Amino acid sequence: MTFALFVVQLFNGVQFGMMLFLMAVGVTLVFGIMRVINLAHGSLFMVGGYFLVESYQDTGSYWLAVPLALAGVIAVAAVLEILVLRPLYDRGHLDQVLATFGLTLFFNEAVVVIWGRVPLDLNVPSFLNGHVAIFSGVNYPVYRLAITAVAMVCGGLLYFVIAHTRLGALIRAGSDKREIVAALGVNIGLLYTAVFALGAALAGLAGMMTGPLLSVESGMGDPILILTLVVIVIGGAGSVRGALVGALLVGVLDTFSRVMLPRLFGLSAGTALVGMADYVLMAGVLVYSRTGLFAAHRG
Amino acid sequence: MPRLNRRALLYLALLLMALAVPLYGNVYYTRFATQIAIYGMAALSVDLLLGYVGLITFGQAAFVGVGAYVTGMLTVAGIDDALIVWPAAMLVAVAFALVIGALSLRTEGFQFIMVTLAFAQMVYYIAQSLRSYGGDNGFTLGGRDALAGMSLANHTVFYYVVLALLVAVMAIAFRVVGSEFGMVIRGRRDNERRLAAIGFPPFAYKYAAFLIAAAIAGLSGALMANHSSFVSPAILSWQVSGQLLAMVILGSPGTLIGPVFGAAIYLVFQQVLSDYTDHWMIFFGPLLVARVLFIKEGVWGLLLRACGAHEVPAPGAVAPDRGAAE
Amino acid sequence: MSPPMLATERLHKSFGALKVTDDVSLSVEAGEVHALIGPNGAGKTTLIGQITGEIMPDSGRVRFAGRDITALATAERARLGLARSFQITSIFPSFTAEGNVALAVQATERHSFRFWRPAASMARLHDPARQLLRELGLAARADTIAAGMAHGEHRQLEIAMALATAPRLLLLDEPMAGLGNEESQAMLALLARLKGQYSILLIEHDMDVVFSLADRISVLVNGRIIASGGAETIRNDPQVRIAYLGEDDEFGEAHAQG
């Protein structure tokens, strides 16, 4: 493997990992604080992509389209939280899993009803086109650098919010001591909606940013969701730090295995091993620790 | 009439109805009923874990799919004696469960759901990578297996074989959940901590139940492969695992026969609605959400109440139709 | 001289910076009732967890009839004869009362990998279960689904299940918790009957019960045993009185009545 290839794949791995991180944060926060398993998170990813396609078509400007699409995702999330998730807070895992699974089925079909089955094209914004030299002789797409940067900024902002703001303190407290937070007069319902909306916004953003790299189609969020869950198993349910570490591990491993394994083992065996790589990592972490690397809560 | 007798009558009526399906002479109904029975068996395996052990598995499709693939691979290789192929399918499914179970059962709750989902996805990707078996497109079997020399190509014959197997699996499952082993796993569902405190090591029993459920799922996979003479990775998708869970809850968890009703509801829904619109999922999704949020019982439970056959527990027995995990 | 039925040797447990179990060594001799008392937050739950196997100590040992069980899982300890009842009722809610006890009886078998015969028809499980329910006055409720039983009945069921495993030692975690007057008297009478038949480690807040039943009393405060001995010793121990000041002076009351 050449140095150039290595660097490119490493950057790709980190980029993919950061996208997974954006997804994982939403799921792990919602689980850690509200104790809810939300399998519909992949749908928020997908909806983000679709909304951006739509809003860009309508406005012609990414600077307008992205905030509009984000607002749309947050609106959808708020409705979801109030209608479906709220009744689930006190229910068992089975109810949560099935209800959010039902939502996923619904959303996957709803986008087909609205936009049809043909995958939509989302283009890279023109000002982010092209390549840039990150090392001598190594060119890398500007767009991928940009979205990695955006995700890192989001991560930084999130860290700031959680560690240094009142909302963050409530989030940290809320995950351990719901009753105390409620007793403090904080509107728990509003807190939960805010947490859910935050997670949804990150998921939608990840969908928007990934859209140009994949294609925007029904079910695009499903494989991402499953990898997100793998990230959370590895990182530990309820832990944001774990989500970051897990996401980077999975992102880099996944990317490298896709490139390396077919080269090492031939196309057929290699592809099979690629399919297994992330899960072997997950299995390994489970053997090491049943609750993941940074477990904040047990299931 | 005593409740227990009413229930027995209900079972009998259902059995007679099931036996009578081919008498309509419509192959389409017979094939549809076969599909219900096969999915019902797969959903039953999920209910064994969900309703009796208290484990929410989002990865049972893995074992169904393994059963289907093994069946398909053996059949196209020329081994088409069902008495060899179907047990082989079950054995390989159990082999997968030995590994997946050993890893997943170390986890609990949320973790367990995600881990079972993840491992099933892994099996899905492996199936997709099998180029000599069509990769993502799958492959056809060219014909059904033969049962002790008897051809199963006739849809009615195949239906009765499937039905017999379903009844047999159900009967065995009923015995198992009523046995001493069954009491332990039900105890685990109720209160794993107390189970350990009285002296039962929970892992060994969970593991055994997991393997049994995988064997049943593997058998249903073998039947599925035979039913359509076709196998593809789609049978391993997480949507299928979710559909099996949905079937259990629609039908009434913790009843073993409820899942068959759930399978019927799901497939009928799919069939009837897809005549009107391609987008029937847009109704099924909310239906599932509604069942979870608003409706307290599944169809089998409702049916029992309607017939006045809702059971009062026998001494020392466990309350039947008891809801599922957590 | 035979070893104590249960002995902890210098148990230590910390959660992060918080030391919850601090060099705890206590023992329960065969046939004695050893009561463990202490204010809330003293670390009783963690200590019980280390004895039953749910929590691993940072250091120290637990011995059962001389045998080192520190590395054994909860179920293995139970099979050796260490039975426990829970402070917060922990039963099998979907089973009947008889089913609960029958399952505990079943636990004494070498294994339960029997898949065919209906457990409900097994006399070897249900006869002893019914007998135990009778002894505890729950015979009339044998066929009631446990989830539908009253709190007091749950507390009795807790004990019944512990007894059903034919234990050598009973670890009773606040058996009187939440009981009304009549129920408390009945429970006290039951415990008095058990005294002498089993070695008992009794965790209780109710001082009447403690003083009337215990052969020895140990006082746990902030994770340490600050005093251990017979009733008089404990009553007169100044450290113990200080530890209990600030609580309802139940301690002082019991002293006054004692």
- Described by its quaternary structure, the protein is heterotrimer
Count of helical regions of chain C: 10
Helical residues, percent of chain B: 55-70%
pLDDT < 50 stretches of chain C = none
Overall structural domain count of chain C: 2
* N-to-C SSE string of chain C, H for helix and E for strand: EEEEHEEHEHHHEHEHEEHHH
Biggest sheet details of chain C: 6 strands, mixed
- If classified by CATH, what would the architecture of the largest domain in chain C be? 3-Layer(aba) Sandwich
State the helicity of chain C in percent bands.
25-40%
In words, what does this structure look like?
The complex is a heterotrimer of chains A (299), B (326) and C (258). With 299 residues, chain A is mainly α. Chain A has a single domain (3-288), classed as ABC transporter involved in vitamin B12 uptake, BtuC (Orthogonal Bundle), CATH 1.10.3470. Helix content of chain A is 76%, strand content 3%. Chain A has a two-stranded antiparallel sheet with strand order 1-2. Chain B has helices at residues 3-20, 27-53, 61-76, 82-104, 109-128, 155-178, 180-198, 202-228, 238-251, 258-276, 281-293, 299-306, and strands at residues 139-140, 146-147, 150-151, 230-231. A two-stranded antiparallel ribbon of chain B has the order 1-4. A two-stranded antiparallel sheet of chain B has the order 2-3. The two termini of chain B are 35 Å apart. Chain C folds into 2 domains: 1-81 and 167-258, 3-Layer(aba) Sandwich (Rossmann fold), CATH 3.40.50; 94-166, no CATH class. Chain C is 37% helix and 22% strand. Chain C has 10 helices and 11 strands. Chain C has helices at residues 44-52, 74-80, 97-106, 123-135, 151-164, 181-194, 207-213, 231-236, 238-244, 250-257, and strands at residues 6-15, 18-24, 27-28, 33-37, 59-64, 67-68, 82-85, 169-173, 199-203, 216-221, 224-229. Chains in contact: A-B, B-C. At the A-B interface, helix 3, helix 4, helix 9 and helix 11 of A face helix 5, helix 9 and helix 11 of B.
